[in-house]
Design goal:
With 223 residues, the chain is mainly alpha-helical. The protein is built from 13 helices and no strands. The model has no long low-confidence stretch (mean pLDDT 97).
């Protein structure tokens, strides 16, 4: 594990760009430090780390991710979530603890959205029996990023989306004034409108959504 993390750090530092780092930090409201690696460059640098023969054993995943998550540069968190994606098919029940850790630490949309629909979404397809407990917990948590995850984990489910779960999540959060929640409500409804526009239209017509949520939800449907 140590060699994997140390080698990644060497590669990121070797390719840092201070000018871009300043711009990235400003864009993210000065919440995180950056090496200044643009996404295409970062993915090229990290590509060898994702080769199957170099991937760490699954049992090391929690420790590696938590080690990288604690580092100040945002590239480590972005790398970590893409690393976890390599193990989606190997998820064990306890891995929801790691995914929740990633959501509630150093939280912002650039990590939470990926974690929600690519990682948590994948996890719940393997362990659907875990949905109710975790979704209920997240909706009641008062943590907007856990709540956003409850909304977005079905984002790419298409015909597999459970409208009862989606309705429950949205109705549980209707009183919020939080931008990131109302935006997520609109986003998941808009995405589902590609699959089932009739259901989305009916849901919007009978639900008192925020102006933002309604506008986003109907963007692909209304002229």
């Amino acid at each position: 594990m140590t060699e994997f993390v140390d080698t990644l750090e060497i590669e990121f530092q070797k390719n840092k760009n201070l000018k871009v780092a300043v711009e990235q930090k400003a864009y993210m409201r000065n919440q995180f430090e950056f090496y200044g690696l643009k996404a295409t460059n970062r993915r090229e640098i990290q590509k060898p780390f994702f080769y199957e023969k170099y991937l760490p054993e699954k049992k090391e995943l929690h420790d590696i991710v938590k080690t990288l998550w604690k580092k100040p540069q945002r590239e480590y968190q972005l790398f970590s979530q893409e690393l976890v994606f390599k193990y989606v098919k190997q998820f064990e029940k306890r891995d929801i603890e790691l995914l929740e850790y990633m959501v509630i630490n150093k939280s912002w949309w650039d990590t939470v959205d990926y974690i929600a629909y690519k990682l948590i979404g994948g996890y719940f397809k393997i362990y659907p029996e875990e949905i109710k407990f975790n979704v209920d917990k997240w909706l009641n948590s008062k943590n907007i990023w856990l709540q956003r995850s409850a909304l977005l984990f079905q984002l790419k489910y298409k015909t597999e989306l459970d409208t009862q779960i989606l309705s429950f999540c949205i109705n549980s959060l209707l009183d919020t004034k939080e931008f990131f929640i109302n935006k997520a409500i609109g986003w998941v409804l808009r995405e589902y409108s590609r699959t089932n526009p009739k259901w989305v239209m009916e849901f919007v017509s009978k639900t008192k959504l925020s102006t933002l949520s309604e506008k986003e939800a109907l963007r692909l449907i209304k002229d």
